[in-house]
Amino acid sequence: MKRVLIVHGDDLGLSKAINDGILQAHRHGILTSTSIMAGGIAFKHALQLRRSATNLDLGVHLSLVGEAPSILPAKQIPSLVDAEGHFHPHAMDFIKVYLRRAIDLNEVRREWTAQITRILDAGISPSHLDSHQHLHALPALRRIAEELARRFDIPAIRFPCERPCPYMLRRPDKLPRLAQLLVLNALWHLNKEPALIHADHFIGFFLGGQLDSGRLHSLLADLPEHGSSELMCHPGYPDPHSPQAHWGYQHEAELKALADPATLDAVKHLNIELINYWNLVKAGGKI
Q: Per the domain annotation, does 52 fall within a domain?
């Protein structure tokens, strides 16, 4: 049985170290797809790098939280920013405001429209939409994301639902992450199945930023035997000055795992077909 897998690197454009890591994992490893942050401080650097990797599938990494600045002036999106005019630090901060119904959805629509437009204006034809910290799983935001995908002829969207597995219960230190996974799945299923093309399975949320070679090989061996899967990862190079250091992500370990010759051998041995989102689109979502 051939298993079909998209290997996706998040956060292109967030920093030069992450950009370089994603390109390295694509050129010398199993990474097939990425998504770019229009507001990332290394957005232009990412565009320059991609000119030498035209086969790298590229989507839009919609952002409303974290260090990435907004495209629009803060005064145009007051419900999306803090007193200093920055996006809320984390998804949980955003969700607290969202649950108070203090997020102006029209501001979300305008900001995301500006992000997509900036990417289109750079000459990119995105294959898919996803979002930083999976905020497009929130029901109202998911509707906006799907609306914008149709408006801008972006054919696919990330389906961020990772199945709970027994190994997750063997990690007491990760129980809060498991709880977040269950909440994310529940939020996504509040709406009906998306009309947009998407992978059938999603992997990588539970081990986000912690995907060393051993864990990667275990996930590859346990891929679903039916349908397509997307594996989210975060490769990169060390950056002692990174404002994302508090995430605790092991970017370099993920890069080494993705580009490890043993990983390439495992993919071949397990009869895994590596694809990207455009391959999925061309197949009508069914591979």
A: yes
Q: Express each pLDDT in 25-48 by its tens digit.
A: 999 999 999 999 999 999 999 999
**Residues paired with 230 in a beta bridge:** 6, 202
Residue 161 lies in a domain: yes
Residue 131's CB: how many other CB atoms inside 10 A?
25
Backbone φ and ψ of 30, nearest 5°: -105, 5
Q: Which residues partner with 9 through β-bridges? A: 34, 233
When pLDDT is averaged across residues 202-216 and rounded to a whole number, the result is 93
Mean pLDDT confidence for 255-266: 97
Contact 26, 32 (CB under 8 A): yes
In-domain check, residue 165: yes
* 5 touches 275 (CB < 8 A): yes
pTM: 0.94
Evaluate whether residue 287 is within a structural domain. no
CATH number reported for the structural domain that contains residue 232 in this entry = 3.20.20.370
Helices and strands of the chain, counted as H and E runs: 11, 8
By the 10 Å C-beta count (0-12 exposed, 13-18 middle, 19+ buried), 128 is classed as buried
Q: Is the pLDDT of residue 1 over 70?
A: no
Residue 41: HSE in the Cβ half-sphere, 13 Å Cα cutoff:
10
Domain count, the chain: 1
Q: How far, in Å, CA of 234 to CA of 215, rounded? A: 14
Range of 253's domain? 3-282
Instruction: Note the maximum CA span of the chain.
Output: 54
**Residue 192 above 80 pLDDT?**
no
CA distance 131 to 142: 10
